[in-house]
Design goal:
Number of helices: 9
CATH architecture of the largest domain: 3-Layer(aba) Sandwich
CATH superfamily of the largest domain: Response regulator
CATH class of the largest domain: Alpha Beta
Shape: elongated
Strand order of the largest sheet: 5-4-6-7-8-9-10
Helix content: 40-55%
């Protein structure tokens, strides 16, 4: 059998490679929308796994960021335009900011140089905050956000660990635990087509107080109380 790592590209590559070998995947996109499976309840074919629900989490990231900077009027959204689900995330975020009466500026970056250019644009627009989607170079982004005094949030725990202000997303440990359970079931004879795609139940909120202090932000006590980890 095949157990994929690396999200959508690896999962789609595995699906293209074989229609018979069982595959256990995890995906950041809607696995039905990108053509991995026919339905969450009955995947069909030779694939099953875990959907990280990252698309659905993006408006929540905006909500958390606005708890930290409630006076925000303009927010940047940094995305990788090559990701399969980017356009959907942009649409969802545009709806979310409209409800919050906040302006949104979409910034696209694939490389370190493009990230530098995106931050130059953020500074020009005097952005009050930044929401990151699935994008690499998180240490670089955390450093740039601190240098330019832009509060930023990302859906990956390691963003806060490398100096980012705040992160909220699924537990990757939990994701791999679910994949391990399904791997064991398939090795014992279960068919992927009969195993519903799982959705995560554990989400982690991490706040870096060092960064908050450097940015001059007062973190609400209610937000601190909900945090899974506070980096001092």
């Amino acid at each position: 059998m095949i157990v994929t790592q690396g999200g959508d590209p690896a999962s789609l590559a595995a699906k293209s490679a074989t229609a018979t070998i069982p595959i256990v995947f995890h995906t950041t996109s809607d696995p039905v929308a990108i053509g991995l499976i026919t339905s969450l309840a009955r995947p069909g074919g030779n694939l099953t796994g875990v959907s990280q629900m990252q698309d659905e989490l993006m408006p929540k990231l905006l909500e958390l960021l606005l708890e930290l900077v409630p006076q925000a009027k303009g927010i940047g959204l940094l995305v990788n335009p090559d990701e399969l689900y980017t356009e959907r995330i942009i649409r969802d975020m545009q709806e979310a900011v409209h409800a919050k009466r906040v302006d949104l500026r979409v910034l696209k970056a694939r490389t370190e140089r493009e990230i530098d250019a995106a931050f130059a644009t953020l500074v020009q627009m005097q952005a009050d905050g930044l929401v990151l989607n699935s994008i690499g170079w998180r240490a670089q982004i955390a450093a740039l956000a601190l240098r330019h005094a832009v509060p930023a949030i990302a859906p990956y725990r390691d963003f806060s660990g490398v100096g980012g202000l705040i992160s909220y997303g699924v537990s990757l440990t939990g994701i791999y635990h679910l994949k391990g359970i399904y791997t064991g079931k398939i090795l014992k004879g279960a068919k992927p087509a009969d195993l519903p795609v799982q959705q995560p139940t554990k989400f982690e909120l991490v706040i870096n107080m060092k960064t908050a202090t450097a940015l001059g932000l007062a973190v609400p006590q209610a937000l601190l109380a909900r945090a899974d980890e506070v980096i001092e």
